[in-house]
Amino acid sequence: xxxxxxxxxxxxxxxxxxxxxxxxxxxxxxxxxxxxxxxxxxxxxxxxxxxxxxxxxxxxxxxxxxxxxxxxxxxxxxxxxxxxxxxxxxxxxxxxxxxxxxxxxxxxxxxxxxxxxxxxxxxxxxxxxxxxxxxxxxxxxxxxxxxxxxxxxxxxxxxxxxxxxxxxxxxxxxxxxxxxxxxxxxxxxxxxxxxxxxxxxxxxxxxxxxxxxxxxxxxxxxxxxxxxxxxxxxxxxxxxxxxxxxxxxxxxxxxxxxxxxxxxxxxxxxxxx
Length: 273
Hints:
43% of the residues lie in helices and 13% in strands. It is an alpha/beta fold.
């Protein structure tokens, strides 16, 4: 077990992340969507588990995150929470569960906390949701922001290209980050923005930034677990590092199982009653 795992408190909290930023210690974050993988990721020592609406892509096979409902997210989140003992568990509020009114957003966040048992929620957007963030935070629910490429708005953007590459959009993103911090966000995900801008945002804010495709200068990093494990090699954006090739390993294992069944090598005498 690493020194980091030995020193980590029994439960990571939003205050833990704040102290990590102050101490210059990077924050590790991965997604999870089910009990089994959440348990493994937590035992490995991850700081934060995000129950992302990316479940729409990797679990349900949808092209975008838009089809996910609040009930879907509560189901996945409650499964993850059951497998976690130490990590901070944050769940995405899905598309149209918080954009219509602040009252609806608060109800959605409350359901996520009460029914799923997560420790906070994540919302996409900047100044347009600042009042909503403030309302949720004032109710005692921690909120993580999300700026840059916001997948729930893909039909508005029309592309998954890097965001905030021009001065005007970069300044707008920086101002959005300031407003989210002022509204009470405890951290902000920065997705697919230039490294220089992510560095500037991270330096200016007192709350942690978590990068994905935003360079090394954020206070932490997040990846989709299925991407990091190499479960879908067709999806190959520049920012992913694959630590395993599980797609190939699982394929090999299944073929070996099929061969053993066909050749009557499984089950053997020790595997029978």
